[in-house]
Amino acid sequence: MTERIEGHGGELALAALRAHGVREMFTLSGGHVFPLYDAAYKTDFPIYDVRHEQSAVFAAEAVAKLQRRPGLAVLTAGPGVTNGISGMTSAFFNASPVLVLGGRAPAFRWGSGSLQEMDHLPLVSPVTKHAETVFSTDDIPRAVGAALNAALTPHRGPAFLDFPLETVFSVAEADLPTVTGVDPIAPDPEEVGRAAMLIAGAQRPVIIAGSDVYAGDAVAALREAAEALQVPVFTNGMGRGSLPPEHPLAFAKARRAALSGADVVVVVGTPLDFRLSFGDFGDAKVVHIVDAPSQRATHVQPAVAPAGDLRLILSALADHSGDRADHSDWIADLRVAEDAAKARDAAEMAAETDPIRPARIYGELRRALAPDAITIGDGGDFVSYAGRYLEPAQPGTWLDPGPYGCLGTGMGYAMGARVSHPDRQICVLMGDGAAGFSLMDVESLVRQKLPVVIVVGNNGIWGLEKHPMRAMYGYDVAADLQPELRYDTVVSALGGAGETVAKAADLGPALQRAFDSGVPYLVNVLTDPTDAYPRSSNLA
Prior knowledge:
- The structure is a single chain.
- The chain is an alpha/beta fold.
- It folds into three domains: 4-175, Thiamin diphosphate (ThDP)-binding fold, Pyr/PP domains (Rossmann fold); 189-334, Rossmann fold (3-Layer(aba) Sandwich); 351-526, Thiamin diphosphate (ThDP)-binding fold, Pyr/PP domains (Rossmann fold, 3-Layer(aba) Sandwich).
- Helices cover 39% and strands 16% of the residues.
- The protein contains 22 helices and 18 strands.
- A six-stranded parallel β-sheet has the order 3-2-4-5-7-6. The protein has a six-stranded parallel β-sheet with strand order 14-13-15-16-18-17, with helices on both faces. Strands 10-9-11-12 form a four-stranded parallel β-sheet, sandwiched between helices.
- Helix 16 links the parallel strand 13 (374-378) and strand 14.
- It is globular.
- Residues 194-317 form the Thiamine pyrophosphate enzyme central domain.
- Residues 378-525 form the Thiamine pyrophosphate enzyme TPP-binding domain.
- Keywords: Thiamine pyrophosphate.
- GO terms for molecular function: acetolactate synthase activity; flavin adenine dinucleotide binding; magnesium ion binding; thiamine pyrophosphate binding.
- This is Acetolactate synthase.
C-alpha cells in the first residue's frame, strides 16, 4: 500500500532516502539546502559535515563502496556542487552508488542573477547515471526514488538531483514510492557456456578479479568458480581480499609470470584499462566478464564477454560439467614465482636503511594492521608501494581512488569508513603531495570524534612526476615540495596528534602509539626521495 506523506521538500526527500536504506548525510553547510538539515535534525538522522565539498562526496562514496548501499552527499548551490564534481567523477569511474543532492537558485527569478545561480546539469550529466532538476515539491519522493534506482542498477554509479530554493522550502503532500529493489541482469547462457569451456579447457588460465566482484556481492561465487575450475586468482581494487592470502589459488606477486605465460586471461568485474595493459595479453585469449553490457570493452575484442549479474555468471562457471584440463603444474609454477617474489619483498620490508625506504613502512604496517582493518590509499608513488606490499586478508577492506586516479580522497574516505565501521582500525596511506588536498578535514574528524590513523610517506617531491620527467628531459620542474614538512604538527594544531619518524627502528612504536591514541593521529615518515617505484608509463 502506498504511503501518503506531507512536509516541506527536505522532509519529503528524507522520507524517500530512508526508505531506500540511506542512513547518514555528508555535507558542507549552505542555505540552499537548509530544509534537508531541518528534516534530519528533527528525526535524529546523522549529519557529518566537512571543510570541503569534495570530502563530503568522497565520504558518501566510501559508504557506498564499503556497505554496498547508497551513500548521500548534500551540497549547496553553485560552488558547492562544482567543488563536488571530482568526487562524482571518481564515483562514476568506480561504479559507486552515490546520490548527490544539490541546492539551486530559485526558479521563479532564474536569469536575474541570484546568489550562486548556475545550471548544474550540463556539468554533472556526463559523470552521473541520472541528473535531474526537480521543480515541483510533490515530485521530490518520486525523483529521489528514480535517482537511487539508477545509481543501484548495474553498471552502478552516481546520481544527481538539485532543487530550486522554492521547491525544497515549500510544503506539499506526496506518495512515498514503493521500494522494489533492482532486478539482476540475466546473462546469456550461451556466452557463459562458451566462457566456461574456454577456461576449463585452457592449459594456463588466470583470473583477475576487480572491484565489481565485491560491489556485486559475488565474492563467494568467485571463490566457488576458482576452486571448481582450479584457476589461480589475482585481484585489483576492491577485489582485493576476495580470496584470503593463504588460499592455495590466491596470488599477488607473480602477476608478470602469470600474464606472460597464460593462454586464457579471465578478467572479472574490472575494465580492460591501463592497469591491465588495455586488455593486450599477447597471444592469450581474453574472457571479459562484466556486470552490464555497457561495460564490454570496445577497444579490444575478447574471445567471449558474458554480461550480467556476476554471481549468476560465476556460479554457472563453478557448475560447468564439461571436460577440464589439469592446471596443477601451472599453479605449482606460479607458486614458485610467488614465493620467490615474497622472499624478495620480505627483505625489502625489513630494510634498516636511513633515510627510510617506503617498503619498510609497509613491513611495519603488516604487523600493526588487524585482519579487518580498512586501508585507504590516497597518493601516487607512495600508495603504489601499498598495492605491492599489503595483502588485504578480507574483502571490503581496501579503498583507493580507482582508475580515475583523483587525489584528495583520503579524509573523506576515512570519514565514510569510520562511520561504516566504528570498531575497526582505519588507516589512511597518504603521499605528502596528496596531503595538500584534504588534510584540513582532519578538523572535521576531530570535531566529530572520528579517530583514524594517517601515515604520510614524506619524500618532499611529487614522485610520479619528478623521476619520469628527469628521465625524459634531464631536468624537472613543478615537482618539489618542502622537504621534511611537519604534517604531524598540522594535525596536532587541528586537534589531533602525531609525530615525525626519521629512523626505521622507530616506525613500529610510532604506529602502535597511533592506533592506541583514539584520535586522528598522523605518523609523518621521512622517506628516501631517490627511491622510485618501478613502473612503465601510465601516460598512454
